[in-house]
Amino acid sequence: MYLTWLDNNSWLIDLDEVRILLDPWLVGPLTVGNQEWLLKVTHRTPPAIPDRVDLILLSQGLEDHAHVETLKALDKAIPVVCSPNAVSLVTGLGYGSVTALAHGETYTHETYTHKGVSIQAFPGSPIGPFLTENAYVLTGQTEGTRLYYEPHGFHAPALADLAPVDVAIAPLMTVKLPLVGAIIQGQESAVDLARSLCLRYLLPTGAGQAVDYAGLLPSLLKGEGGPAECRALLAQAGLATEVLEPKPGDCLSIAPASSPETPSVAA
């Protein structure tokens, strides 16, 4: 398995010869409802669009996970798997193969040479009182390597039935908004996740590094914790989960659990 962090919540996942572009934001600024006064995030150096993408995977229908300008720039022939909340957006942009996964449903993307990757949807981030977006478990059908992704730190109890999981991509920092509370859960949430999934590795997501923030919203947000604090909490809990910290553009090589190889940054 190869995991390339494209900054923020965007990842390129190579698993069993399937290249999956996850929650991509690669083109133009990131805003909320086109209200730049509220939030505008820009890449210092925009990531390149990958030369090959076999599948686009969207966890939410919100702008920071289903970024319109990026989706406009990608090939509309690429199949899309998404939360039900993102369906109207991607179909409206002209994508012809769109699969919405409700919680508990599974999609399998096969290749000519490999058994492919299965993607199972779980409850993820609550968006208001009536909508819960998706978390995903990706399983390589050849070697059984398994990855979990949820970008806001809301992890379903049913995930424990899937343990052990090799890698989780989840926030390690808690982010709070005045009068609202935690909108992103890290720290203890990440430790509980590591324990329930018997994780080998934990990778942070959401905390953009090579980006610049503007607008009112960033000044109101308060962040607590991070990778170092998470390592300390994992040690206190007696967990062997290793926290990896890729930089934007790094490609991590993750070997199957049966392999003696340790994670490395691929050339």
From TrEMBL:
Organism domain of life: Bacteria
Keywords: Hydrolase
Membrane-spanning parts: none
Annotated PANTHER family: METALLO-HYDROLASE/OXIDOREDUCTASE SUPERFAMILY PROTEIN (PTHR36142), METALLO-HYDROLASE_OXIDOREDUCTASE SUPERFAMILY PROTEIN (PTHR36142:SF2)
Entries under Gene3D superfamilies matching the protein: Ribonuclease Z/Hydroxyacylglutathione hydrolase-like
GO terms of molecular function: hydrolase activity
Name used for this protein in its record: MBL fold metallo-hydrolase
Record has Hydrolase as a keyword: yes
The organism of origin for this protein: Thermoleptolyngbya sichuanensis A183
